[in-house]
Batch of 4 targets.
Target 1
Amino acid sequence: MCIALITARIGSKRIKKKNIKIFFGKPIISYPISVCKKIKFFKNIYVSTESKTISKIVKKYEAQVPFLRPKNLADSKTGTLPVVKDFIRKLKIPYNTVVCCIYPVTPMLTAQLLKKSYRTFKKSSSKFLIPVIRTNEYNSKSFQLNKNNVITKNNSDKNYLDAGQFYLGKARDFLRTKSLLFSGSSKALIIKSNEAIDVNTNKDWKKLKLLFRKQNKNVKI
């Protein structure tokens, strides 16, 4: 069994209500929901949020919100992992269930990539599968890959970044790990740099619109 879990809080520091901001006529969170609906192996599409506003919006796009997330797991200091763990525990997700944790600001995400990732994960013995992009920078957010494309920290001259799209793993491994990237068994799936962008500023948002428009020429402005 496999489920999709989109994590979306209402607050954001630099872009107000980023996760439901209108993007080419629709709330941006509707894009990953629409993609997930095309994929048969997702038994359910859930959204974890503390916001009644977000809950109301995503239900219109046929995603489920079984409960509202606690406020203490919806601040800027709380990472993705505690949110996923809380959801798995409260909904009593079976340990062998494959959970695809997806970020809401991912309009570039495609069903093809999710299907490819799922197939790769099922064939792998790794605990997690994570899309990454190549970077020329070496900083606190960058990491390297070993010969098996497992995420690590070493002195390689090839650096990568989390693409900020999704994480695939079994429920039991989400509960047991202390780090999604550095679990010791997190396999990277390298994607092109123009297939994803981590949106934190208005400049990033404008860049995302340009990339999306380039890849979706029929989009209505």
Target 2
Amino acid sequence: MTHAENPETPDAPGAAAKAASPALFDRIARRYDLLNHLLSCGTDVLWRRRVARELAAVPHEVVLDLACGTGDQIITILERVPGVRRGVGIDMAGEMLRLGRAKLEARGLADRVLLARGDGQGMPLADDSVDCATIAFGIRNMPDPERCLGEFRRVLRPGGTLAVLEFSLPTNRFLRPLYLAYFRRILPRLGGVISGDAGAYRYLNRTVEAFPRGEDFRRRVAVAGFADVRAIPLSGAIATIYIGVKDG
């Protein structure tokens, strides 16, 4: 059954809603980290560490993190992947970047990371300028994800690695209905109460359920010009890491 055929599946947010999402994330920025850890029971930390572990197998000096938010993924990479000299974080949400800079300062990493406001569909970076690129829970917010994948290919050096960490949905027939009940009914209410913005967490579950996942998204990464693309399910496929290498 497809999303369109399932009357319980929320309608997918359109391009206009996704384009407005930076303002949404700015509104919840101060509670964003707390809610990530609380609503995932701390699993989001383990997922980001798994991304770093996958990247540690290949040398990387310059790492880009798109939709970097408050900096959790780029910080995890800098602290856990040997050989990384510099990081670049790009996000459209100015308040999230401000909080990210404060976290980098507190950890003594500010001199190694440049945070900049920018669009993932037109990154302010030169061609072939980074060794590795990541995006954690951000590509589904892009109005045109395929265009974003093309931008990743443009800024990566030949042979560079792309790692996309994104929510998916459990495939286990017992876990899936329990997860969807939590995701559709409990998470939006709890997130709304803590953040003070119920709309932000209704947007979350709508984008996750509508976004392509698993083999579908793995193919899209390959079509964008990446070779050896792998999909790594995490926590029963609640999230998935997609790893690919810039072809050519």
Target 3
Amino acid sequence: MSRSAAAHDGISFRGGPLIPILFFITPLFTAIAPRLAPHLLLIVALVLIVAALRRGLPWRALLEPNPAAMALAAVAAYAALSAIWAVEPYEALSKGALLLAATSTVFAAAAAIPSLDGEQRRRATLALVAGTLCAALFVSIELLTRGALTSAAMNVMPVLQPDNAKRVHIIDGRVTRINLAEFNQNVAVVAFQLWPGLLALSTLPDSRRTLLSVPFLLALAVPVGLSEHDSSQIGLVASLLILPLALFNARAVIRGLALFWCLGFALVLPLDFLAYKAELHLADWLPISARARIIIWEYTAERVLERPLLGVGADSTPGAKAVAAKAAKRQEWPEGFVLPRTTGHHAHNLFLQSWYELGLVGALLVAIAGAAVVLRMLRLPRQAQPFAAAAFTMFAAIGAFAWGMWQTWLICAVGLLALYLLMAASLYRTRANETLASQERGLGADSPHQPDADGPKNPGWTHSGGSATA
């Protein structure tokens, strides 16, 4: 692109402000209102794609197939197909379409990132760090003040008040108190931003990296620790344990994560039955939320055995629950149980929900898709692989204990997590390319060691640390 053309291109010219601005406001706004994640994911992806196309990336490069994308598309197609036998056909069809759209959007935007201007990517990663710190500050203030800012906004604009006042106390049209659990989604969004931010900081020179990384980690650990979201706390601890292992041997850890992901689907049913048989749902030393989950898990696991091959259909747990409640007319609530024996609105466990709603076929597809995504981390620059492994550990922990797997904001928040990681990882790729170009200039055009001129043309492919990355 010529200098004159770039001067009129507010998106793709060197140092253009739009992408860095988006990488600042997106982590902040999604932490303030997680349900903005779908809209912001679409905006970020479109801007990245348009910028890359205007810098000369062939549009076919955005659609290049890869095993991870194909595996996720297979899950989406099967979820949509389950509408044929689903208790809630519309939900199954819409969730399949959602997953396919999110997958296509994220992978197309990921293919666009390497074609962006290097300085623009550096500014975007720094903006990501700044936006994440502001997000952590906002969530910390809300937790410490029990939602003072959110309460004020809801009272000024009543349209923001939720229809379901389960965790928001409203008297005479005014919000008087917000339970801390209302901010669990906000906390999870901040937790997702931890490892992309630390990866971004790892690209800085040694002195600044050490100076900033520890305060950044502590700043994001504060809202997670203050919250009532046990899943994010488990994810934080687990990912902190994975990081040093991955720094020592990233390839082994990544392959181990792929294996454990698959084992999760193989072991979830027997573990649920075992926990219930051990009467952990009656253990006073466990939090009430954990005891409730054990009841939900065991009851849902029993229902899996009723339709083990195909399941009840994607996102059909609420519909199946309503059908069962109507047939039973009265819920079974044994003495000492913190809630009735029920499936709940979802299984609070991605592995179990896959079994219940998609059956054996779907569980196999989700296991393969997750493993394919994990193994694709091996194509990242080696410096980025430990952070990617820690980020996946955070996601897996939250997915194993928290929300339903089809929640729109959650799927899109994970998509943004992937783009944050790839943007920061691309800086290592840029550095490797600059080093290679410098070596080529030193060797001279006639050197027998010069790379083949007919090498890979796709700007998303390069080599770093001896391994191909995409």
Target 4
Amino acid sequence: MRSIEVIIETPKGSAVKYNYDPVNDHFKLKKALPAGMVFPFDFGFIPRTKGGDGDPLDIILIAEFGTFPGCRVECKLIGCLKAEQTGPKNKKIRNDRYLAVPTDSVIFEKVKTFTDLPSRLLKELEAFFIQYNKLENKNFAVIARAGPPASYRMIKAAQAQFCGK
């Protein structure tokens, strides 16, 4: 099993969104979510990658425990929600959401791929990101789901983008 390192930006249960500021090397409050809305799982990024939106690849850490901003977690990649999002001037960009489970997870230790998760959990994650983007006047649509092998290949391509290859 290959593992990847994830850096958490926004912890599970948080009603605010944090972003990592690489120039100043710290986490910064980006925005508050609407009343009653919280992140269902830890949300972060895969370091040394560059996605279609110009930022590091986004990742959701599915775990029975929460972490904190800046926490580095060793994970197994279980898949990806391939997604399109409207950007500035309604331009469509890819803004995928990768899915991972911590290597230290007890409850999710047998999860190898996103298909091992309850289908309702995936539907709720997709609904969260659709609503989260809608509140910013953006459209977010899941266009496909990918398993671990395809997701690893996409991460490798994003690492090459980061390195300028």
